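Hello again, I could really use a second opinion on something today. I've dropped the whole record in just underneath, so have a look.
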Amino acid sequence: MLNHKGLDRERTKLVFDKKMEQDYFTLYLQSYLQSEFPDVLAKLTTEEIENLVSERVNQAASIFEQERLSGKDVLQAQEVAIADLTNGLSFSIYTFLNNLLETEFLPDYQRLIASEKRQSFLITICPLLEKLVKNYEESDTGENQRLCYHLIIGQLETLIQTHGV
C-alpha cells in the first residue's frame, strides 16, 4: 500500500513520463516533417508549424498514456501513438520526387547535391508537380501509374533544364 509520499512519487513519475513522451514525440515529428515534408513546412508559418506539432504531440501523448493504462508495454504504446502522430503523412511528394530525381537523373541529382541546391530545387518543383504526383499515387491500375510516371519524368526533365541544373 502506498503512503502519501508514495502517491506523490507516483504522480511525479507519471507527469515526468508524460513530459518525456511529449518531448520524444515532438522530436520525432519535427525530424519526420523536416526530412520527409520540407515542401509542406515551407508553405506554413512558424506559428502554424508549432500548432501542428503541438496538436499532434498532445494527441499522441494522450494515446500513449491510454495504451499504457490499458496494459501495453512502452514499445507497444509508442507504436500506436506514433501511428497516430504521423497519420495522414504517409506519402511525401518531396520524397517521391527526390527518389525519382536520384534514380532517373543521377548526374543532375549529384550536381544538386554538390551545389547544396537539392532541397531548394525540390521545394520549388513540388507544387508544380503535385497534381501529377497525386494522380500517380492514386492510380488504381498499373497502366495509369506508368503513364503518370512517364509524364512526371518528362515534366521533371523540363524543370531541370528550365532551372539550369
Notes: The radius of gyration is 21 Å. The domain at 4-85 is CATH 1.10.8 (Helicase, Ruva Protein; domain 3). The helical segments are 4-36, 38-43, 46-69, 74-85, 93-104, 106-114, 118-138, 142-162.
